[in-house]
Amino acid sequence: MIWLPLRFTRFPHTDLFRSTYPTQGRTLFFSLILISTSLSFSTCDEFLPAYSEPDAVLEATLSTQYVLDITDNSLKVYLTARNVFDETLQAKADVTGTIELESLRDPSVRKAFLLSAANFIEAPGYNRNTGILTINPHQSVRLGVSWNFVTDDAGRDIRREFFKYIEDPTCEDRCFALTEDWVVRGRVQLFEKTGSSVADSIQYALCFVNQYVRSGPEGGCASFDTNAPCNLRPPVLGNFCTPQRFQEGR
């Protein structure tokens, strides 16, 4: 209720005021009551909505990259979180979330990674000393995980127990796995008071190779492309292959 600071003038002859202007006095009195009552109903029962922290402030997307070189043989999965809020976000980072991969052919073959601040690979506004994360409008941070296929969540070495290989007629020590489709899912929460951002799931066709072998005249093996649809490889005869060695991933 809002009380107005009304000021009244006191007349020395109060009886004169009452007798000379009886109607006006009553009118003023009732007018003040009406004003007070009106203000009571219009203000006392009106409350400002409680402040709540914004939830949908980050937009999450997923991407993948299969890396095969002399030092690595693994699948990288990246989760990018973009600030779609019109204000700068700044607070102590409290990173939680998951990135999950699931075989389309056999859903029992899956791998899940828990996310934390240690998974930041691009976060220009993150101070590792203080733990404070700053994200300006339309800026992004990127988190990443790496899977070397050695074990899934059930403890299986899927390089040996899941992939099916055909031989590479141009290279004795190299085997190509048949294309395997994976469903990739991810979600992340960067701050304690913001909601979890769930990325749209994606499907990735993996062209796994047991190991890296130098291509060209020096190595004697034909070059190939590990990107889907895995058809830029040397012609194969369809003979099954059992890899003897595997390139270790990171």
Record the SSE blueprint.
Elements: H1 14-20, H2 22-44, E1 58-69, E2 72-83, E3 89-92, E4 96-103, E5 110-114, E6 120-122, E7 132-135, E8 140-147, H3 158-161, E9 165-167, E10 175-177, E11 180-189, E12 197-198, E13 202-206
Antiparallel strand pairs: 1-2, 2-8, 3-7, 4-5, 4-11, 6-8, 9-10, 11-12, 11-13
The gist of it:
The protein is of the alpha+beta class. Helices cover 14% and strands 32% of the residues. It has a domain at 58-206: Sandwich (Immunoglobulin-like).
What does this structure look like?
Strand 4 (96-103) and strand 5 (110-114) form a beta hairpin. It contains 3 helices and 13 strands, in the order ααββββββββαβββββ. It has a domain at 58-206: Sandwich (Immunoglobulin-like), CATH 2.60.40.10. The protein is elongated and about 60 Å long. The strands form 4 sheets. Strands 4, 5, 11, 12 and 13 form a 5-stranded antiparallel beta sheet that branches. The chain has a 4-stranded antiparallel beta sheet with strand order 1-2-8-6, with no helix packed on it. It has a two-stranded antiparallel ribbon with strand order 3-7. It is an alpha+beta fold. It is 14% helix and 32% strand. Mean pLDDT is 80; it is low at 1-45.
